[in-house]
Amino acid sequence: MRASRLFIPLAATALLLVGCASEEGSSTATSGEPAELCSFDESVDGVTAVQTGDDGSTQLTVAKDAKVPEELVVVDLCQGVGVEATPQSAVTADYVGVGYKTREVFDSSFERGEPATFPLSQVIPGWTEGVAGMKPGGARLLLIPSDLAYGPTGRPPAIQENEALAFIVEIVEIQEAPQ
C-alpha cells in the first residue's frame, strides 16, 4: 500500500518530464498542461488579480484610484511550460477584461465557460505585445494604456473612448503560424 502511494506521484512526475522534453524541440508545439495548479493574488497600481486554485474563480478589479498605465505593464502571475507564443501565434486563452473608467468587466471567457482562440496579429496591440512570450498554463496580468487598446474611438458601449484596460490572460494552447 505504501509503495503504491509513492509510485503514483513518481509516475506522474516522470510523465510530465517526458512530455516537457518532447515539447521543447517542437516548432509547431501547442498545448501543455500547467506543472501545478495556478493560484495568484497580485496587486499592481490599484489593479488586483485573484485566482484561487481551490475553485478556479478569477477576479479582476480596478480601484477608483488606480493609476492609469501610460505604457504596457506585464506581470507574470504563473509560469507556463512548453513553447512560447510569438506575435505570429494564435492562442487559445481564458481571460477577463475590465475597463479603467467603468471598472466593470466588459468581456470574460471565464463567464462564458469556454476559452477563445485569437491570432495575436489580429488583436489590440496591448494583447499582441503582452501575450508574446507566454507559455501554455501561464497567466499574466496586462495593464494596457488606451493607445494600445481601442484608443479615441473605444468600442461602445462596453469600452469608452480613450479607456485603459486591464486583463488577466491564461494561455490554454498555442498554435504557431505557418512559415
List the helices and strands and how they pair.
Layout: H1 2-24, E1 40-44, E2 47-51, E3 58-62, E4 73-78, E5 90-99, E6 105-108, H2 109-112, E7 116-119, H3 125-131, E8 139-144, E9 165-175
Antiparallel strand pairs: 1-2, 2-3, 4-8, 5-6, 5-7, 5-9, 8-9
Can you give a write-up of this model?
The chain is α+β, with helices and mostly antiparallel strands. The protein has one domain (2-175): Chitinase A, domain 3, CATH 3.10.50.40. Helices cover 19% and strands 31% of the residues. It contains three helices and nine strands. The chain has helices at residues 2-24, 109-112, 125-131, and strands at 40-44, 47-51, 58-62, 73-78, 90-99, 105-108, 116-119, 139-144, 165-175. The strands form two sheets. Strands 4, 5, 6, 7, 8 and 9 form a six-stranded antiparallel sheet that branches. Strands 1-2-3 form a three-stranded antiparallel sheet, with no helix packed on it. The longest helix is centred in the N-terminal third of the chain and has 23 residues, at 2-24. The radius of gyration is 18 Å and the shape is globular. The termini are far apart. Residues 1-35 have low confidence and may be disordered.
Features:
single chain; disordered N terminus; 6-stranded antiparallel sheet; globular; Chitinase A, domain 3; about 180 residues; 3-stranded antiparallel sheet; 3 helices
